[in-house]
TrEMBL record:
Residues 65-166 form the AB hydrolase-1 domain. InterPro entries: AB_hydrolase_1 (IPR000073), AB_hydrolase_fold (IPR029058), HAT_MetX-like (IPR008220). The active site is at S130, D284, H313. GO terms for molecular function: acyltransferase activity, transferring groups other than amino-acyl groups; hydrolase activity. It comes from Leptolyngbya iicbica LK. This is Alpha/beta fold hydrolase. Keywords: Hydrolase. Gene3D superfamilies: alpha/beta hydrolase. It comes from the Bacteria. It holds the Pfam family Abhydrolase_1. NCBIfam families: PRK07581.1.
Length: 338
């Protein structure tokens, strides 16, 4: 790993929403060594609410992604508080102002960074969980001859209507706070955060997970303690404007809704040439196995391998769950041999 995260600056960056920012700052972290032929690159985009240091636990010699063999790059998605976001750029707004980021914006910025900083024009793997999986599908469809493999964990290439209801409920919980003035928060949303976190917790893990209460083994004393310290406290670390900005990106996820495909979602998926591991969790409530299986049928070289887990959506990010980590590691190892 490099000692510090790096920042790539792109001047006059036109977003898909139509706004041109004076500059976009893409913060990224690298792990391992780039080979002379530049063919050992794994791109690992961030998920909702996450920054690179939240998701790099799975990078290690005996973990899912091996930095002794691969050069791994984690780009922080726009809106996550490190890269250009409402919290660190006065030119950024929210959907109420006609402003939003899309994954089309994310992958264009990432592609330019990889090409101009490292001379990388081919990826051995794009690995992503949740919103990271969404970005992986965008990469595979928009740069089909440059992506050899995709590992899409617990994510879809297009946000379903059912998923949108979940996202709208999160957004509504935050913006129902008295501190929301219709465009921004004028204070910390102390009522909004608890409602938001409890909605999120109810969707992110399965009914079986809450029946079996595995969270008690991690030092939580009760369900309420888990919701307070395991969910609400974590999201209070994030600026609420950034949380909404990332929701707005997630809501607009559709690989077909770009200038390249002009609304043709099926064509976008059929364009993917990469060996693609489609890996939902069997109990995911918002990136459901059925939705992921339907997309796998539309990708020529897709392998559908659901994670048998009670952990719901979080099975795809198993930092507390060695069994699911081992299952994912084996599947990714097989994929990298393809």
């Amino acid at each position: 790993m490099t000692s510090d995260a790096q920042t790539f600056v792109i001047p006059d960056f036109e977003l898909q929403c139509g706004v041109t920012l004076p500059e976009v700052r893409l913060v990224y972290q690298t792990y391992g060594e780039l080979s002379r032929d530049r063919r050992n690159v794994i791109l690992y985009p961030t998920s909702y609410g996450a920054q690179h240091h939240d998701i790099d636990w799975l990078i290690g010699r005996d973990r899912i992604l091996d930095p002794t063999r691969y050069f791994i790059v984690i780009p922080n998605q726009l809106g996550n508080g490190l890269s250009t976001s409402p919290s660190n750029d006065e030119h950024c707004g929210l959907a109420e102002d006609g402003f939003w980021f899309t994954h089309y914006d994310n992958i264009r910025a990432q592609e330019q960074m990889l090409r101009e900083v490292f001379g990388i024009d081919r990826l051995a793997l794009v690995y992503g969980w949740s919103m990271g999986a969404q970005q992986a599908y965008y990469w595979g469809s928009h740069y089909p001859d440059r992506v050899e493999r995709i590992a899409a964990l617990c994510g879809t290439a297009k946000t379903t209507d059912h998923n949108k209801i979940f996202l709208w409920s999160l957004r509504s919980a935050l913006t129902a706070d008295p501190a929301w003035n219709g465009h921004r928060f004028t204070a910390i949303p102390d009522r909004g955060y608890p409602a938001y976190a409890r909605i999120y917790a109810s969707w992110a893990a399965s009914q079986a997970y809450y029946r079996e209460q595995p969270y008690l083994q991690f030092g939580y004393e009760s369900l309420e303690d888990y919701l307070l310290r395991g969910w609400e406290a974590n999201y209070r670390k994030r600026d609420p404007h950034n949380l909404i900005a990332m929701i707005d990106t997630w809501l607009r996820c559709d690989v077909g809704n770009t200038p390249t495909f002009q609304g043709d979602y099926a064509k976008a998926l059929s364009t993917i040439q990469a060996h693609t591991l489609v890996m939902p969790a069997t109990t995911d409530l918002y990136f459901t196995p059925d939705d992921c299986a339907a997309e796998a049928q539309m990708i020529a070289r897709a392998t559908y391998t659901p994670i048998p887990s009670i952990w719901g959506h979080r099975a795809g990010h198993p930092y507390q769950n060695p069994e699911d980590e081992a299952f994912i590691r084996q599947a990714v190892t097989t994929l990298l041999q393809a």
